[in-house]
Each structure stands twice: as structure tokens, then as C-alpha cells.
Amino acid sequence: MNSEAEKFAGVDGAKGAWVVAVLAETTLTWTACASVTEVLEVTRDCARVGVDMPLSLPEHGYRVSELEAKTFLGTARSSIFHTPVASVLDAESYPEACAVSRQLTGKAISKQTWHILPSVKAWRDADVDRDRYIEVHPECSFRAMSPATVFSSKKTGRGVGQRLASMMRWSEHVDLADLPPGPAVDDFLDAAAAAWSARRFHLGEHLTFGTADGKDRIVA
What we know:
Helix content: 25-40%
Largest sheet: 5 strands, mixed
Shape: globular
Structural class: alpha/beta
Distance between the termini: 21 Å
Number of strands: 7
């Protein structure tokens, strides 16, 4: 396969919606999508797609992939929060979800986790090809992209600048002036990092946290 002629995509959640970054050769373009169904349509001709959303759920305890990714990130480990157990998705309220989680893991879930459960469920229900749609964590991607950089928060100007500088080493055309309205800048940057990891996975140059297959895997 000629990877230079193929397209790769990265997907990041953006307040109930989605940002898709498509990497074609060295050019990045972005699209805002309202649903996972729309994301799948936009990415249907991409060789690999990196998704910043849990694509596997544990039955008990924590995923090994997340524990390994936290170790990789070191002081930035707090950017990864633990994926809830699968049974939590059936909860009808936050207290119920916390009770289920406590029973199976010993700990409740955070409000942040509760609010993303609809997105987690949407990807679970989509039943995508787990060899083509791979789970990524953008902070791991940026760390792999620029190991010597001590990244500031992506919510700060310095953090945005650091991530843009890292991206410019592999993408010749990054035009933020044409970004779709709505999502924050860090959502677009995270989607781009996910696309970078998707291409690395396709070429066999990636880092793997967890299992080699898609049962419990995060790729960088």
C-alpha cells in the first residue's frame, strides 16, 4: 500500500459533537460533525481512524491500556481518566452509575465521566471495525510526537503553541483560519494528533498501551 496516497483521520469529542481531522499526505483539513453516524460517513474512505473515546469497556476494575498510558505520561497522567465498567452504561442516573461502579471497582465515577457516557455508548453501538477505528489519547500522541517537549496545558496559549509547533514538523499545511465554527482550538489539535497516530498505526510505527488487538488498546 502507498500510505502517501491514502487518507487518515482523527476524531475528538467537542461538547456533544465531534471534530474530524483528515490527513491527506501532509495536508490537514477539519470537519465538524453532529453525530457518530456523521463521523463514520466523513471517514468512510480513510485507511485508519484514530478516535479519542473509549472503544472498549472493562467488566471489572481498570483497563491495562489506561494504566500503561498514565505511566507513559508521567506528570501529565491526570489527563487520562479511567473508563467506567460496561454496566455503568445502563444506569439511568448519576447516583445509580456511581453505585454500580462502586460495586464493581470500589470507586464512584466522576461527573465528567457521567457526562461523556452518551458518547461512549454511541461508539459502542456503532460497532466499528476495531482494526480500522482505533482508540487514541491525544496527550500520548503529542508526547510521542515530541518527546523532549514538556507540554503546558492545552487550554493555555503556550500549550497551543507547543502543539502547533509539534504538528508543523509533519504537516506542511495547517490553516487554522478555516476551522469550522464552534469547537475550541484544542479540540482541533487533539483531532489532528489522533490522525497522526492513526497513520503511525497503519505504518506499524505506533506505540501500543494494553493489548496488541482492540480488546484493550490505546495507540500513540
